[in-house]
């Protein structure tokens, strides 16, 4: 039988996902092999893992190269992929916020620095505010400190980076976590294989939520 292909984001989130996968009965040993292979297969041959950059996971699933994948909700909201999202895995939890320099006021026609241009634009538009969105890839906290922007839209976990740069949250746009995504066509074609796995993962998520050591990034 053809293995189910799961697109997994490379990096530290693998260490967070692995216990969840293991609770659901997946053999994850291949994910931790000490080599540079980007395609890994479980020892039982039931699953094939594609190790990808986080932003690329939804693309591989949408085009059917992978049956399933794990993606941050921020990426899904920003790019509007046509994917089925059957389960919130409740890991990698953080929040999308608007932040500015402590004590500063955001003007009526603000300039907003962010890598999440769509999310920022839609958020301010929903409030009737026509914001100028400036795309920046990294070190977004710098933008309001040097006058590039009036505020930022960014992901925040603990808020420590904001505080260290004299920035404060002014509002939360939405909560973010990692989501299991599925190709819509393949979900129907391979439903007999995918549905039981989703049920096992759902039970694993519920068990993790009941644990005093909740899985987090």
Question: Topology, pairings included?
Answer:
Elements: E1 4-9, H1 13-23, E2 39-41, E3 47-52, H2 57-62, E4 68-72, H3 73-79, E5 84-88, E6 94-101, E7 111-114, H4 117-126, E8 132-135, H5 142-145, E9 151-156, H6 160-164, E10 167-176, E11 178-182, H7 184-189, H8 191-210
Parallel strand pairs: 1-3, 1-4, 7-8, 7-9
Antiparallel strand pairs: 2-3, 4-11, 5-11, 6-9, 6-10
Molecular structure report:
The longest helix has 20 residues, at 191-210. The protein has helices at 13-23, 57-62, 73-79, 117-126, 142-145, 160-164, 184-189, 191-210; strands at 4-9, 39-41, 47-52, 68-72, 84-88, 94-101, 111-114, 132-135, 151-156, 167-176, 178-182. The strands form two sheets. A six-stranded mixed β-sheet has the order 2-3-1-4-11-5. It has a five-stranded mixed β-sheet with strand order 8-7-9-6-10. It is α/β, with parallel strands linked by helices and 217 residues long. It is built from eight helices and eleven strands. The radius of gyration is 19 Å and the shape is elongated. Residues 212-217 have low confidence and may be disordered. Helices cover 32% and strands 29% of the residues. β7 (111-114), α4 and β8 form a beta-alpha-beta unit. The chain folds into two domains: 4-92 and 177-210, Periplasmic binding protein-like II (D-Maltodextrin-Binding Protein, domain 2), CATH 3.40.190.10; 94-176, D-Maltodextrin-Binding Protein, domain 2 (3-Layer(aba) Sandwich), CATH 3.40.190.10.
């Amino acid at each position: 039988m053809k293995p189910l292909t799961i697109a997994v984001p490379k990096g530290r989130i693998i260490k967070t996902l692995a216990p969840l996968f293991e609770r659901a009965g997946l053999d994850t040993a291949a994910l931790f092999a000490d080599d540079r292979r980007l395609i890994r297969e479980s020892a039982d041959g039931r699953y094939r893992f594609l190790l990808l950059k986080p932003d690329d996971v939804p693309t591989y699933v949408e085009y059917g190269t992978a049956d399933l994948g794990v993606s941050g909700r921020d990426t899904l909201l920003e790019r509007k992929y046509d994917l089925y999202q059957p389960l919130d895995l409740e890991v990698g939890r953080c929040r999308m916020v608007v932040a500015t320099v402590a004590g500063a006021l955001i003007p009526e026609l603000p300039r907003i620095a962010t890598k999440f241009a769509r999310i920022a634009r839609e958020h301010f538009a929903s409030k009737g505010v026509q914001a100028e969105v400036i795309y920046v890839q990294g070190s977004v906290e710098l933008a309001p400190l040097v006058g590039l922007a009036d505020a930022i839209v960014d992901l925040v976990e603990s808020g420590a980076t904001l505080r260290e740069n004299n920035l404060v949250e002014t509002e939360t746009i939405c909560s973010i976590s990692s989501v299991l995504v599925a190709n819509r066509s393949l979900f129907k074609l391979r439903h007999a294989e995918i549905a039981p796995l989703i049920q096992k993962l759902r039970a694993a998520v519920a068990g993790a939520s009941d644990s005093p050591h909740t899985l987090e990034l």
